[in-house]
Amino acid sequence: MAPVRLPADAELPLLRARVSDLADRALVVGDPGRAARVAELLDDVRQLAANREYHVYAGSYQGVPITVASHGVGAAGAAVCFEELARGGVTRIIRSGTAGGMQPDVVDGAIVVATGAVREDGVSHQLVPTPFPAIATPSLTLALQAAAEQSGLDVHSGIVVTGDMFYPSDVITGVDLPMWQRAGVVAVEMEAAALFVIAALHGIETGAVFAIDGNPLAAKDESMDGYDPYREVVTRAVDGALTAALDALIA
Prior knowledge:
The chain is of the alpha/beta class. The chain has one domain (19-249): Nucleoside phosphorylase domain (Rossmann fold), CATH 3.40.50.1580. It contains 6 helices and 10 strands, in the order βαβββαβββαβαβαβα. It has helices spanning 32-39, 75-87, 138-149, 177-182, 192-202, 232-249; strands spanning 25-29, 43-51, 54-61, 64-70, 92-101, 111-120, 134-135, 155-163, 187-189, 205-212. It has a 5-stranded mixed beta barrel. β3 (54-61) and β4 (64-70) form a beta hairpin. It is an enzyme of class 2 (transferase).
């Protein structure tokens, strides 16, 4: 079945933006506040819509039209954003967000460029069979890597794991993070696998870059006690990841 494309005069049902207002390149972030922060980096910016967690802006970056959209926390809700952007004609989507480091040297303040994602989310398995890979577009990944290196921060690249659970339960084990660490996974986050799968189904380019805001394996119980994503070291990494995403979008 061919991917759905909406007419130019259509309004996206949940993003509530008009298709004709979308650029062909989009930066997506989880937090609506972060979307507003990105909007401040654009020229000729205007807000297209604000519905639920989905806040959408239009502007230009170094003369190139850009759409910015927030998608909230978790793959299921984020998939709505990714799907509607693809249906609206966006051909390149980069996600910039925060993630937890999984390797001992991937620590607070570092940047991770994802080459692919382990599909431990719930939504991608309802779109394609389990053996289907979730991978980023190689050329876009290289552009993100080069842009991130310009930040002067510690940059890593590799496979991330996408899970649905943020706070662990003491009843049942969720994603087996120690196992994925042994497999070489570099970070854990909550939306990339859905983005990569949806982009593949629509035949569009995609990538993801993350600011590391902690390491869930540093605490033996993985309880997330003491988690604080608002420290200065994380803010610098967030800014570096956002700039890298914008630079790669227009490369």
